[in-house]
């Protein structure tokens, strides 16, 4: 969850400011999520995205109008009860994040290779130049 900020400060900075273990990233749950490295190779670009604690089922990649969007949405519910069924601890978490990259109109879905392993998504996006449109001359009919 993203909190409103004023001048780059979170509204809870003053409240939690005395506790060094309560950083803004810990409170919002976004620390380290979707950090991306882009590597240019001879034939393609390699995007490596860190997604610690995310399952493959929670990741979706979409290509639309030349833009590649990677969207992550995750939920967690950890209930722990004692012998009498009373809660000892009950935590719930919901989070989502997305990143968008322009890859060009010439790239198609079938051209992109994706692999998710150990909390890391690796995408191989081929280098494709947009084909220049052939200019067609249109003549005006002249009567007479």
Structure, explained:
By secondary structure, the chain is mainly beta. The protein contains two helices and nine strands. Strand 8 (113-117) and strand 9 form a beta hairpin.
Spatial sequence of strands, sheet with the most strands: 3-4-9-8
Q: Unreliable stretches, pLDDT < 50, 5 or more residues?
A: 1-29
Largest sheet: 4 strands, antiparallel
* Shape verdict: elongated
Q: Count of helices?
A: 2
- Report the strand count: 9
Query: What are the secondary-structure elements, in order, as H or E?
Result: EEHHEEEEEEE
Short key terms for the protein model shown above:
three-stranded antiparallel sheet; single chain; elongated; mainly beta; four-stranded antiparallel sheet; 6% helix; 144 residues
Give the gist of this structure.
The chain has two helices and nine strands.
Produce the secondary structure layout.
Blueprint: E1 5-6, E2 9-10, H1 13-16, H2 24-28, E3 35-40, E4 44-50, E5 59-64, E6 67-81, E7 87-102, E8 113-117, E9 120-126
Antiparallel strand pairs: 1-2, 3-4, 4-9, 5-6, 6-7, 8-9
